[in-house]
Amino acid sequence: MSVSDDPSAAGAQWRVNQSVERIYQALEGGEFQLYYQPKVNMRLGEVVGLEALLRWQHPEFGLIPPLSFLPQIEESSLIIDIGEWVLDNALLQIKQWQLMGQLIPVSINLSVNHLTHRAFLIRLKDALSRYPDLPPNLIDIEIVESVAIGDLKAMSQLMVEC
């Protein structure tokens, strides 16, 4: 049975398409924000870094966490666009903190589909080249935990190349 044979499946697909379009509009409209959550070494009681957390400041529904919208776009190219936005904005923030004398490591979560995209390494190098004086140890790239990793060997090699 195809989506066209099942009215409820067709309705569900329409809702997904509408959601993807609305998320795209949110990205274009500047409705996404990064919040920085401290990573604390509990033995020392010190902040050892920050994690960049994506949030959607929806004009009608307020602050929306990523698990409410990222799964809907995981298989679309929009996940890559949002990952690029996160990377660019986190690097800009790290640079701003560096200019203020604060060298704070930041973890950036990216999806497996973004990390395995054929242009990822090129885009990453391009983004990093805009901030040549940022120490590499201030940037940690993490894989979004909501997605299982299929090819661990390929993912390990990609992490080495990063």
UniProtKB/TrEMBL annotation:
It comes from mine drainage metagenome. GO terms for molecular function: cyclic-guanylate-specific phosphodiesterase activity. SUPFAM superfamilies: EAL domain-like. The lineage of its organism: unclassified sequences, metagenomes, ecological metagenomes. This is Diguanylate cyclase/phosphodiesterase with PAS/PAC and GAF sensor(S). Residues 16-162 form the EAL domain. InterPro entries: Cyclic-di-GMP_PDE-like (IPR050706), EAL_dom (IPR001633), EAL_sf (IPR035919). Coiled coil: none annotated. Pfam families: EAL (PF00563).
